[in-house]
Design goal:
By secondary structure, the protein is mainly α. The protein is elongated and about 145 Å long. The chain starts with a helix and ends with a strand.
């Protein structure tokens, strides 16, 4: 084998081991089998360091309680402030020692929290003004030196724990667990969204059934005798109104022939006085209104007066023709029918106004409209949730691929993770 063959062999990387398809819940177990020896050694050391650190913290607590019972007495003015500084230090230390995190399962996250918490407590314990430090070291030298030594041991062991955390095995285990937890979290989120969608679909189904019943109820009401009677009432009012208009047109047509003679009468009346003038002026100005309101006698009086005026032959013929129709009752019949129609329309409109059929129908229609609106709102909610759920699914797929890539890169294992 030549020199270059040796170099080639050295650069060769083994093909990844194919572990096949693995369910997400079993990925952690599969990975830990591959790096179990490294993780076991590091966790054993972690447990040992954790136990010693906890023991040392208990020792610090014990030493502080002993220090609390000590008192500096020299009979001088310095006694009170020195003892006060000592008491404050003890209270602060005991309070901070209550903030030490606890490790249960020695998972990466727990160990990280413990190291961070321990580091913070140690830093806070060191935040003592230089003057107080000098006084405590001077007047309680034995007690404080033992506390400082114990805290330094804790700091050293905490740093070792932190360095172990930065080792590949625990870091990788923590990274993988974090990704697995993230995928499970996204799956739970997707499941919750699916439940929300199903709940909304059930609501839509119920609302549609309710809407169908309401529509049947409305259809039944519209075909009922009550509603048909109300509709007929409106139709009758419309027909009566049409007939009234026809009568108005017929009367207007009859009066149109005497319009010019009546204008002449109106002009002639300007030179007269008395009640007669007022009455006849009204007829001359608004013959139709007077006829409908007061009857044919007042109109007849005005027409008779026209005989005394200088009219054209054709005008006189139209006047006489209208007089004849008034005398034989034709105009009166039209007026009576007009008045009858007006009374009928008034009576039917009163019945129409008193009826609650329109309100009932509108109420039923409003219920259907509200249900339609609720269904549309639920459909929009489903559309929104569905869109968010799609994004979550895309997130799950991305995390799955990232996890497979991480395992392939760091452990040289090919996994097909089933989520």
């Amino acid at each position: 084998m030549g020199f270059f063959d040796f170099l080639k062999k050295k650069e060769e990387v083994s093909e990844p081991h194919d572990a096949g398809s693995v369910e997400l819940a079993k990925v952690k177990e599969t990975i830990e089998r591959s790096i179990s020896s490294d993780i076991t050694k590091e966790r054993e050391r972690m447990r040992e360091l954790y136990a010693r650190i906890k023991e040392n913290f208990r020792e610090v607590k014990k030493l502080n309680k002993e220090l609390s019972g000590k008192s500096f007495e020299s009979g001088q003015r310095v006694d009170a402030p020195v003892n006060m500084i000592k008491d404050n230090y003890v209270r602060k230390t005991l309070s901070l020692l209550n903030n030490i995190p606890v490790i249960d399962n020695f998972e990466y996250g727990e160990i990280t929290d413990f190291c961070s918490g321990t580091e913070k407590v140690l830093k806070d314990l060191q935040k003592i003004p230089p003057k107080q430090t000098i006084l405590l070291s001077k007047y309680f030298k034995g007690e404080t030196s033992r506390i400082i030594k114990t805290l330094k041991d804790i700091e050293r062991m905490s740093k070792e724990m932190k360095s172990l955390l930065e080792g590949k095995a625990l870091w990788l285990g923590g990274k993988i667990n974090s990704k697995i937890d993230r995928i499970f979290e996204l799956k739970r989120k997707s499941k919750d969204m699916e439940k929300q969608e199903n709940t909304l679909r059930e609501k839509i189904k119920d609302k549609r059934n309710e809407k169908g019943e309401k529509e049947k109820d409305l259809a039944g009401f519209v075909s009922s005798e009550e509603f048909k009677g109300f509709e007929n009432l409106g139709f009758e009012i419309k027909e009566l109104g049409r007939e009234r208009s026809e009568i108005e047109n017929e009367i207007r047509e009859e009066l149109s022939g005497v319009k010019r003679p009546l204008k002449k009468l109106e002009y002639d009346l300007k030179h007269r006085e008395g009640k007669e003038k007022v009455s006849l002026s009204k007829v001359a100005h608004s013959p139709m209104k007077v006829l409908l309101e007061q009857g044919g006698s007042v109109l007849m009086e005005a027409l008779v007066k026209l005989r005394d005026l200088n009219l054209k032959e054709n005008e006189r013929e139209r006047v006489e023709g209208l007089i004849k129709k008034i005398e034989n009752g034709e105009i009166s019949k039209l007026r009576e029918r007009y008045k009858q129609i007006e009374n009928e329309i008034r009576e039917k409109k009163e019945r129409e106004e008193k009826s609650d059929v329109t309100d009932k129908k509108r109420g039923k229609e409003r219920e259907i409209e509200n249900l339609t609106k609720e269904i549309q709102e639920h459909e929009k909610e489903i559309e929104k949730i569905s869109g968010n759920r799609k994004k979550v699914s895309e997130g799950i797929e991305k995390e799955r691929k990232d996890l497979e890539g991480l395992v392939r890169k760091e452990i040289n294992i090919n996994l097909n993770i089933i989520v």
